[in-house]
Amino acid sequence: MIYDLIIIGLGPAGITAGIYAKRQNLDCLVVGKSFGGQMMNKSVDIENYPGFEKISGFDLMEKMREQLVQKGVQIIEDEVLEVKKKDNFFKVTLSSKEFHSKSIIIATGSSYRCLGVEGENNYLGRGVSYCTTCDGPLFRNKVVAVIGGGEAGFEAARFLSSYASKVYILEKGIEVLASKSNQEIVSSLYPKIEVILEVEMKKIEGEEMVKKIVFKKGEDEIILPVDGVFIQIGYVPASSIFNGLVDLSNRNEILINKETCETSTQGIFAAGDVSDGKVKQIVVACGEGAKAAMSVYKYLNKK
Fold it and tell me: 92-102: b or e for each residue (b if 16 or more CB lie within 10 Å)?
């Protein structure tokens, strides 16, 4: 059997693509190792998804999963090992079986790069966050630390300064990597935003919520009281198995046409955090999933 479309990924982009593909009567299969990824953490609350004032990532993904199932979309939870193109068709190899299709949507997402320090996982959703847009407004009049002195870290600090009473930027290097314009803006906001260089993070501590971070600067161990820790040291797109099949950016994101979600390979589309879009948000991933599915429908009609 040859499917019209195989969607790889069971996160927001993949699920939305499946729903839209089904509405277009495409013979569609959605595959992925597990539903939701990091969103399945029950301790992570989402407060910026339309229709819900507040909902846990787990509950939101459950609602999306239920909708996909109710639409009658075929789903297989299994790891994708390889995708190959032969002539005008694609072979998708899972750990247990292989399938064939006329088109592919890659929606495998990405994961935030973790610090790997003591307390990071324990306080996730209780003061530790990887998303300033999601959680920044919760820290009004609080003291927060941003870990990472690159572009993302400086932009996070600027955003947080609208809410927090004090923002520290902690960078492990001897200089920051943010653009000169961002550095100038942050400097103009001193002392509300303060940069600390040559930081070796040791641990994050607290009680019910984060209370402090511990780091070394030179020979000194420093305890810094904070209410929140925003980790901004990059993310890892789940794109490794597609290297050589589609073009990747220097950050290993899949390069797409922003209007159609098409990749460099005809018949392959990509959506969500694995693509090279600048905004990594659930609602954006859903929008790209819908766009990709509609682009597939047009592509197959032309074929």
Answer: bebeeeebebb
